[in-house]
Amino acid sequence: MSASHAPTELSSTPPDRNGTASPLEALGSGAGPVRVLRPRRAAPADAVRPTRAEVNLAHLRHNLRVLERALNGVKRPQIWGVLKADAYGHGAPAVARTLERAGIPGLGVALLEEAIELRDAGIRLPILVMGGYYGPRREGFEEIIARDLVPVVYDAGQIERLANVVRLEQRDRVGVHLKVDTGMGRLGATSSELEAVFAMLAKHPEVRLDGLMTHLACADADDLGVTIEQMRRFEEIEQRAKSFGLTPRVRHASNSAAMLRLPAAWLDIVRPGVALFGISPRAGLAPDLKPVIRVRSEVVALRTIAKGDSIGYGHTWQASRESVVATVPMGYADGLSRQLSNRGAALVRGQRAPIAGAVSMDLTMLDVTDVPGARVGDEVVFLGTQDGPLGRATISVEEIAALTGTIAWEVLTSISRRVPRFYREP
Ligand SMILES: Cc1ncc(COP(=O)(O)O)c(C=O)c1O
Predict the structure, then answer these.
(1) Are residues 298 and 265 in the same domain?
(2) CB 90 within 8 A of CB 293
(3) The pTM is what?
């Protein structure tokens, strides 16, 4: 069980785990304490409500092994696990700790804040800060240096600012990964900016180009044409870098889909996110993956309503017969999409029960008329598998994504911080 779910706090740079001053304070950077808004999640010890997410760490380790086995080429790339957005909703500190112990060589996150959360949790692995945002002042880069993080940069100004901070901090050199845009059109130096970026890197030996990376836009599409073209452009950019005397030690491009489909995109590091959590980014790509998260609650109220009665906001559900309705304390504020109103289902006693009426903020009703023996206190599963007296049933992330018109990534990252994560080590 993770122990690092601190309440919300706008803190100054926190002391290290021994309670001594942080490396940044010890450096006397003069910039004053860095203020970092730490994420909040209900800690399991605070959980009174029976709604919780159970995270199966054995399945996480299993998925890492499945991915390692998938990389069976001549030269195996390293796997750096992408743990942005609180490890896709699974709780980044516990997930990182598990992967670190399982021998993963590196991690990636989107935000500097996320990287700091992992360092505070005692994670010592290399952490790549992929979002490339360090704020307008020096403090962001100072944190990068003090916490030994790997910054992603994508423009010449960032490189110059980082070089200044490295000099001010009297550090030797800082390694960066340069992100280049090969067709995503989102973040990364564009073709016309590359000249200036390479010139800046060549001018500032304090900033060492350790990695060259790009992100693929269509690796899960039917047609891999766009991805192949992105990889061609990436190779071209690598050659341009060489002409400036820049030879990055590692190159990387693959998300889960590319690593499972296109060995030509493996390069030196692959960056799977969603596959680590048991989701195949395309149907059938990795059948051995196991879902890691399960969301469950319990029936807290049960009523029998007459034929013709309506329930919930807007009275959108009307009983077509005398019905038994169960109320469950999980709502859209917990990440159960309102789009599941009158469409989705949950599992009770090992059987599906349809959602009846509008999902509200904190509560949802189920029609359990056809679930014999349903009673207050029964477990209710909104996501995952349930074994019960009536059988075994599963509601997958993919099913919810299809029903709500979104993707598995959004379903996972929507499980809100109000739902405490419990870690299972079976
Ligand atoms: C830069 C980068 N690399 C890798 C990933 C991992 O992607 P996926 O979850 O599809 O494996 C992401 C997530 O979108 C990303 O933004």
Answers:
(1) no
(2) yes
(3) 0.89
The rounded distance, in Å, linking the Cα atoms of 244 and 241 is 5
In this structure, the answer to whether residues 233 and 377 fall within a common structural domain is no
Residues 273 and 303 grouped into a single domain: no
Indicate whether 260 and 297 sit together in one domain.
no
**350 class by beta-carbon count within 10 Å (0-12 exposed, 13-18 middle, 19+ buried):** middle
The domain in which residue 106 lies consists of 16-48+57-277
268 exposed, middle or buried (CB, 10 Å; 0-12, 13-18, 19+)?
middle
Based on the residue annotation, tell me whether 313 is a catalytic residue of this protein.
Answer: yes
State which of 215, 227, 277, 289 you would mutate to test the pocket of ligand 1, scoring each by most atoms of that ligand within 8 A of its C-beta. 215
If one residue of 127, 180, 255 were mutated to test the ligand 1 pocket, choosing by the most ligand atoms within 8 A of its CB, it would be 255
Q: Quick check: is 84 catalytic?
A: yes
In tens, the pLDDT along 268-301 reads: 999 999 999 999 999 999 999 999 999 999 999 9
| 412: in domain | no
382 plus 307 within the same structural domain: yes
Residue that has been written with the tokens 């990287």 in this structure: 115
